[in-house]
Amino acid sequence: MTLHPAVAAVRRGVRGELTHLAPGDTVLVACSGGADSLALLSATIFEAHKAGMRVIGATIDHGLQPESAEHAVRVVGQMAALGVDETVSARVQVEGIGSGPEAAARRARYAVLGQIADRMQAAVVLLGHTRDDQAETVLLGLTRGSGGRSMAGMRRGYDCYRRPLLDVSRDDTVTACQVEGIEFWTDPHNRDPGFTRVRVRDRVLPVLEEELGPGIAAALARTADLLRDDMEFLDSLADHAYAEVSAGEGLDVALLRERPRPVRTRVLRRAAVDAGALDAELFHVHVTAMQQLLERRGAEIQLPGHVTAYRDGDLLRFRPTAVES
């Protein structure tokens, strides 16, 4: 029997991420009950079991929707029916909604996934982001003027996390589920035009496809891969520069000025984050302001996360921002 191309595409992506693992290793798959994560889980069970690995399915209840607990129970049943070796369900408290419900839920989700991976001694955690998700991320980064880092999109892997489906379309994950007889859930948030990402998905990308021709999502995802290589190279240069300009409890201004601007801005960002500034809320305007401190003795600026950057003689330093009671 010929394997359906959609199923083959998903399995091929998973297979590529499992090649460096050994029999007996544990693979943790994050599963929301949607088509992407269920197609990923099904493919992982097939590929990992064939290689003698254990598969654990994990679903996270963010508690942001009515009946979310009942949905989590259904997903646990689906994961067990598909053949995982073990299931895990966790409920998280989503805090910091002020930065946006998506960002807050993402932080909570990754925190608990990391805890589960540690407890289960998982070699990798597989995430179900597709090529379409990557295209949306790149387009959002472009429209926000966030620079190369944002336009480079989601990383294929970092720490224990891997994204095997970044070369697979969302249509393929849906088709794979349909071919395999897997019922999937459609998150109502994914149809809510109140979310910018949903408007990009349902309105902007279709217009681009219609006006510029098919293949826009693939082209945007390819752009992310190309930019990612450049960003990682610049980040490696910044790592060396950061070590060289660090002086006591600050940055040597004269040495930092000598670095090329793309390296200099990365050093400033990294130093601010290391001092406690919030990475997700540290924007171009903040980095630009820190660059201006290199020319202004005695000046200071406040950064998100209650951190103040200030010029102290020949050094740029950071301290906690005083909070008025």
Characterize the largest beta sheet: strand count, sense, and whether it forms a barrel: 6 strands, mixed
Q: What structural class do the secondary elements suggest?
A: alpha/beta
Q: What's the β-strand tally?
A: 11
Distance between the termini: 71 Å
The 3D shape can be described as: elongated
CATH class of the largest domain: Alpha Beta
CATH fold-type name of the largest domain: Rossmann fold
Low-confidence stretches: none
Separate helix tally:
12
Would you tell me the overall average pLDDT?
89
Count of individual domains: 2
Assembly type of the shown chains?
single chain
Report strand %: 5-15%
Widest sheet: strand ordering:
3-2-1-4-6-5
The CATH architecture category of the largest domain equals: 3-Layer(aba) Sandwich
Helical content stands at: 40-55%
| CA radius of gyration | 22 Å
Give structural notes.
This protein has 325 residues and is an alpha/beta fold. It contains twelve helices and eleven strands. The chain has helices at 5-18, 35-50, 68-82, 101-120, 131-143, 148-151, 170-180, 196-212, 216-245, 253-257, 261-274, 284-293; strands at 26-30, 54-61, 86-91, 124-126, 157-158, 161-162, 246-247, 250-252, 300-303, 307-312, 315-320. A six-stranded mixed beta sheet has the order 3-2-1-4-6-5. Strands 7-8-11-10-9 form a five-stranded antiparallel beta sheet. Strand 2, helix 3 and strand 3 (86-91) form a beta-alpha-beta unit. Helix 1 packs across helix 2 (35-50) and helix 5 packs across helix 9 (216-245). The chain is elongated. It starts with a helix and ends in a 5-residue tail after the last strand. 34% of the residues are buried.
